[in-house]
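[09:14] KT: can someone run the structure on this one? pasting the chain below
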Amino acid sequence: MKNAKSCSLRFIAPGIALLFGTPALSEETSGAPMLEEIVVTAQKRTESLQDVPIAIATLDGNQLDSFGINNAVQVSQMVPNFSVGTLGGGSSPITFLNIRGIQTTDFTLINDASVALYVDEVYQSAQAAGVSQVYDIERVEVLKGPQGTLFGRNASAGLLHYITRRPTDEFEGYAELQLGDHGQQIAHGAISGPLAEGINARLAGKYNRDDGYAENADGVDGFGETDIYALRASVEFDLGEHAKALVSIHHSNSDGSANPRYQVGTRDSESGAPCAPAVVIKGQCVSGTGFRFPSADAERTYDAQPLTSEYEATGGVINISWDLDWGTFTSITGYEEFDSAVTGDTGTGAPYSNLIIQVPFTAEAENFSQELRINGDAGGLRWLAGLYYYEDERTGANTVDLIPLGVRLTDEAATTESTSYAVFGSVDYSFSNSISLTAGVRYTDEVRELIENVNNLTGLDTPADDAENQEVTGDASLQWQPNDDHMAYLKYSRGFKNGGFNIDPISVGPVDSEILDSWELGAKSSWLENRIQSTAAIFFYDFQGFQSVATTLDPDTLAPTADFINAGDSSVQGVEVDIRWLALENLELYISAAYLDTEIDADPELIIDGNTVDGNELQQAPAFQLAGYAKYSLDTENIGRFTLQTDFWYKEPTFFGLDNSPAERSDYNHVVNARVRWDSPSDRYYLGVFVENVFDEQYTTHSFYSPASDTAWYDQGLPRWWGVKMGASF
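[09:31] RB: done, C-alpha cells below
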C-alpha cells in the first residue's frame, strides 16, 4: 500500500491548494442570473449549504425529477463516495449503504448499519424501505462523516436523509406518468391543500412496475421484475399563533426479482468436468486462470438462479413544534415496522434445471423513537439541547424449503431487542464577524439483547446474551468566513455504531461496537456573484473495530462459516470536490469528483475465503469517482421551454469483499444518460424523452463468492433503457 499512500498524498496536495489557494475571480456580473441558494437542515435548523461545516451532497425535488431518480441507487450514482448495494439489485430488502468506503455487511438484517437512513428526522432500521421509495421529496441530503452529535448511534459513516414535501395552505397537485422499455410503468403524484381553517393535508402515491429485461438460458423468466406501490398521507395542524403539528403515515409494498447474474465458477455445466484452474462464463469453461469479469460484448442471456424478494413497510411520524420567545421546542415521535423475504432457488441438475430447493431469508423489524429538543439564538450564540429514546425488535431467519415434500425447515433464526437513551447538545458561537466555533457532545446508553438464537437443523441453541454500550461522541469545528462568499472549516468528529450478534449459534459471541474518528478540512465558496458554487473537503479517518460478515473455511472440515465479527481497524483518506457553474443564462454545468484511499489493519491470521485481509482495501471503495451533468434550456415565447440534458457517472474498479478476491471485483463502470424535455408556456404541462445508459455499457453492481461451490455471481446493472415522461401540475 506504500504506492497507494504516496499517490494519495500527491492527490491531496492539490486539494489543499484548491481549498485555500484558488485564484480570485474578478469579473463583474452585476444583474446577471445566479444559482439558487441550497437550503439544508443538517444541523437541525434551516441554513444555507454554503454556511454549514459539514460535507453534504444534496438533491432537491426538481433535480430528482430532472435526473429521473426513483430510488437511492440512482441517488448514489450522482454522489461520489456514496454507494448503495443490494443483494440481487432491484428492490431487494437486503441493502447496504456505503459512504467513503464504510458500510456494514449483514445479510440477516438483525444488526445496524454504519450509514444511517432517516426519513423526516426518523431513523429507519430497515434501509430497503428508503431505497426503493423516492417520491414527493422536497430534497435528499447525504451527510458524509460521523454525525455523532445530532444523529447519534449508527451514523458513524454518515447518513442518507429524505425530507418529504409538507402540506400547503393553497390547493395544488401534480401527476406524472413514465412509460419505458421492457414494460416499465411509473406513476406518481400528489394533491395538497387546506381541509379547514388551520388544517392542511397532503396525499402522495407512487406505482412502479417493469417486466425485467433479461432472458434466461434455461427458459426461466422473471429477472429484474419490479412491482412496487407506496402511499403517504400527512396532515398539518395550526395549534395557535406559535405552534404546529404534523402527522404523517406511509405504507409501501414491493415484489420483484433480482437483476440477472453472471455465474463464474470452476465446473462445466454440461459435462460436469472441473475447469480449474480455468474459468466458467455463463456455465461454460473458458481458457485462462483465476476469475475474470464477463466480457462486455457477451450475449445478454443468463444461466443463473432466480432470486425473488418482497417487503412491506408501514410507519408514521408526529412532529410538533412550539416557537417560544427564547427558542423553539420540537417533539418528534416515530414508528416503523418492516417485513421482508428474499428467496433463492437451487437445483440438483446443471444448470439449475431441477428447482427443488428454496432458501428464503426472512426478516422482521419494529422500532419506536422519541426525540425532544429545544434550540435558541442569543446574540452571537446559537444552541441546541435534546433527549432521545429508541427501541426496536428484530427477527432474522434462514430457512430451507423442500418443495417436493412440502417441508420448511428453519435453519437459523435469531431475535434481538434494543433500547437506547441519549442526551445531546451543541453550541455555535461567533467570536467575530469572521471566526466562529461549533461544538457538540452526545452521551448514549444502549443495551442490545439476544433473545433467541436457534438452529433447528443442528439442534444447537445459543443462550440469551446482551451487549451494552455507553459512548460519548461529538464534534468540534472552527469556521473562518472572511465574507459572505467564502467559508473554510477544520472539523473533528467522532461516531460509533453499537455492537451486534451472529445469527449462527455455533459462531462467535457478541460483536463489539465500532468507533470512527475523523479530521476534515473543507471550504465552500461562491464566485461571480453566485454564478459558481464550489465545495471541497479533505478527510482523514481512524476506523476502529469495524464490523462485517466474514466467510471463513474451517481448517479441518473446509466447511464455510459466516460470522459477523470485528474485522479490524482501517485508515481512510480522501478528497472530494464539486463545482456548479451557471455558464450562461440558460446553461448549467456540474462536476463532482472524489478520491479515496483505504487500508485495512487486521489480524494477519484473519483469513476470508482463503485470502488474508490485512493490508487490503475496504469494500466498495473505488479509488476515483466522477459524476456530472450539462443542462441547456431554451425559452420561447409561444411554444414553451425546451431542455436538453446529459448526465454521467464513472467509478473505478472496486472490491465487494474484504478479502479483495478477483472473484468479487467490479470492472470500470461508466454510464451516460440523455434527456429532452418540453414544458408548456404556463409550466403546467410537460413531456420528455429519456435514454438511460446510452452506450449500453455492462457493469457490475455487486458480486458474491461462495467458497463451498467455488463459484462467484456478478449482479449486472441496467442495460440501455429508454422511455417517455409526461406530467401536469395544478
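[09:33] KT: thanks! The first helix runs from residue 2 to 20.
[09:34] RB: yep, looked fine to me
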